[in-house]
Amino acid sequence: MASGTWNESIPGIGTFFVGIDIAPGRYRCDDGKGGWWVRFTGPGGGDPVGSWPLPAGPTEIEIPATDFAFETHVRTYWRRVADAASGSSSGAAELRPVTDPTLRADLDPLVRRRRPLVVLAPFSVLGAGFAGLPVFGSVWLLGMTMLAALVAIGAPTVFLDLTRAHELEKRRDRYVVPDDLDAEARTLLARAQTAVDTVRESEVNQEGLLESAENAVILPREEWEIAHALARQSRLREDGTDPGDELPEVEAALRPLREKLDRSVTAVTRRIEALERYAEHVRAADEALLAQRRVDDITGRAHEYDELVADTVRDDMALPEIERLTERSDDLLTVLRARLKDSAPDD
Description:
This protein is an alpha+beta fold.
């Protein structure tokens, strides 16, 4: 799946970063029989949770915005059936983790290189069973055969998930989670992510009227570079809050550093404001597109108004006939009143 492009479905096999490859929400798989999934939760995905084997028939999974990644192996696919459930009111729960867009390209080859070792693991266990057969007998071989079967079933999931989580932890500088940010940085990142989402979810972008290919590359990179800078600013602000910083000598030493930090914050804020201006233009383009569709709809129904006018012309032609009928009714009324008067008894 292209980085930065959110679809309403997830392919059956693969690993996808939440907020980068896929949108958070509730997903449904029509038949997950024998498959499995893993949600990489916690900071940087360091707390994976999963389910295996999945039962036959439909199954659903909730992927919160705070998850780092989602790995799946099912025969069909997942489709989004609902938005993500509301989290807590804290800023951290509203933000999504942000990943270096190049991280996935680094992780996948590393995991693939370890896959052959996982495939050979059950054969190694079975070989140990045959090697111990002369010493331990057939019971040993039977036990090792059963163990080899369990390894063949469970090892790919467990080992590769642990490998991916380990590799993610080694690249801690390649992703930012909300806990890495202080309140000021969270506010700025929320503005940036709102602008990015506005562009991604716009009608003009989904219909390919914008430079969708460029957006798919540029927006994730912009979001990552902004989040990375905000995380560094948060760390530096925290480092500059020591009680001893109020001493005149320390204050004098920190002043030029704080000025540099302020310049960095100003630069990132300008970058976010540029994203917001872009999002505002896209929102205006959406409104123009909606208006154009409405005009096209009205234009397409113009023939109905022409037919209505033609019908009203026929109505005008019918007026003399209606007026003649009215005159006849007046004559009838006069005759009836005269008869009524003649038939009245004399006093």
